[in-house]
Amino acid sequence: MTTLVVCLDRTDDVGRKTGLRSPVVGWEAVRALVTDVGLADPEDSGVNTLLESLRVAQNLRDENEEVVVAVVSGDHESMVSADRAVAEQLDDLIADHEPDSAVVVTDSAEDERLIPIVESRVRVDSVDRVVVRQARDIESTYYLLKQFLADEELRQTVLIPIGLTLLVFPLLATTVGPAEGAAAITTVIGLFLLYKGFNVDELLTRLARQTRESLYSGQVSVVTYVVAAGLTFVGLFVGALGVSTLGETPGVVIPAMQFAYDSIPWLAMAALTASAGRLLDEAIRDDPIRSSFLNLPFIVVAVSLVVRGFSAYFLEQQDVIGQFVVPANEFLIFSNERFVMGTGERLALFVVSAIVISLVGARVAAAVSGSSDAADRTDGGSDPELTDGGADTNPDASEERTR
Fold first, then answer.
1. Across-strand partners of 5?
2. Are 306 and 346 in contact (CB under 8 A)?
3. pLDDT of 16-31, one tens digit each?
């Protein structure tokens, strides 16, 4: 069996440095070529490639194989002419020596592009890529950068922000000053990193898709969401207006409690409106209403009462709001007396009311879900799967219930 050990040189570095024409065939010829290339350019990695070709050939000879070692070069004028030159030289080598297999030796990714040409003419048993030990890290970094630049998404994510930063910073430095320019650019980069880190683009895409599907399907929740958004803005405005009436108040606790106290009714109405829309969408469908949608309005009211109660507690402690006074005639007691609740009593009333409402919501959701399940089981009369005293006569249905 004859093995062809071929050293590939796509850009004809050997021919340009030594003036020899390829192919160079034979042990002695390749050995002499190593000296010529080394004298012409001692730093060329092609010297190591030629030596590796000789080493591989020697190892195969030690295993009693017939070996033909050769150096095949292309053309530096164009890649097409280089590939055609390599193909022509390989045809001549195969016609002269008739090898059964080949071992390819290269020193770069550029030369590895010639491997398919070799494989189309002879079976390739091995590919030996030579990397100079001193340049291994540098070459690995080069190919990583090359692969990075070939990825369009990575280029747009990394190179475009860096390029914009290098363009904008000189303009900002000359107009507003270096410190202000650096601060502005750092802020923009930070926002961009947060935007990518939290996948805001995917969230916006998903929101746009869901909105489009809701509009096309005619869901009621589209209208209720718009109303809920308006109520939310009103609540935020009312809360900010309440904070502005406090004047000079030290700290942030009291303004935060005032904001929550004034805005929570509007925010609760917004949440109730949005949940009502989802509940109507579920009711319109043929599927049973899920218990989570039934329980959500009660949870919203309960949480709103708790937040309102605690915010009122802190504000009353600081004399920002007055005590909770209930006229007696509210309880059908015809008297001029009034019931005044203390701070703790008001908080306890709100918390107990929230707990009761949440329990009622859980009970209602469980009752509705239970009735829906019972209706599904009794729909269409008796269970067709159970007959003859409860014996299951439908093996497919029994297997389905087991799964």
1. 69, 103
2. no
3. 888 888 888 999 999 9
Average pLDDT over residues 287-316: 83
Nearest of 94, 91, 75 to residue 83 by alpha carbon: 75
Which amino acid makes up residue 128?
Answer: D
Closest CA to 7 of 120, 75, 103, 131: 103
Q: Report whether pLDDT(233) > 90.
A: yes
Here the tokens at position 64 are 């009693």
Q: Running DSSP on this structure, what letter comes out for residue 333?
A: -
Q: Are strands 101-106 and 391-392 parallel, antiparallel or unpaired?
A: unpaired
- 103, 67 contact by CB (below 8 A): no
Task: Taking residues 192-206, report their average pLDDT.
Answer: 81
Strand partners, 286: none
Euclidean distance between CA atoms 391 and 369, whole angstroms: 28
Identify whether the C-beta of residue 346 lies closer than 8 Å to the C-beta of residue 316: yes
The rounded distance, in Å, linking the Cα atoms of 244 and 114 is 76
- Asked if the model's pLDDT at residue 393 lies above 50, the reply is no
Domain residue limits, the chain: 2-139, 151-198, 202-373
Q: 113-122, 147-156, 298-307: which has the minimum mean pLDDT?
A: 147-156
* Residue 336, token pair as written in the block: 């001029």
pLDDT at 391: 44
Query: Taking residues 115-128, what's their average pLDDT?
Result: 90
The residue whose two tokens read 């904008």 is 168
**pTM score of the predicted model:** 0.44
CA distances for 305 relative to 145, 267, 309, 398, angstroms: 59, 12, 6, 49
Structure tokens at 113: 């592009």
> Coil, helix or strand for 105?
strand
CA angle 143, 147, 151 (to 5 degrees): 165
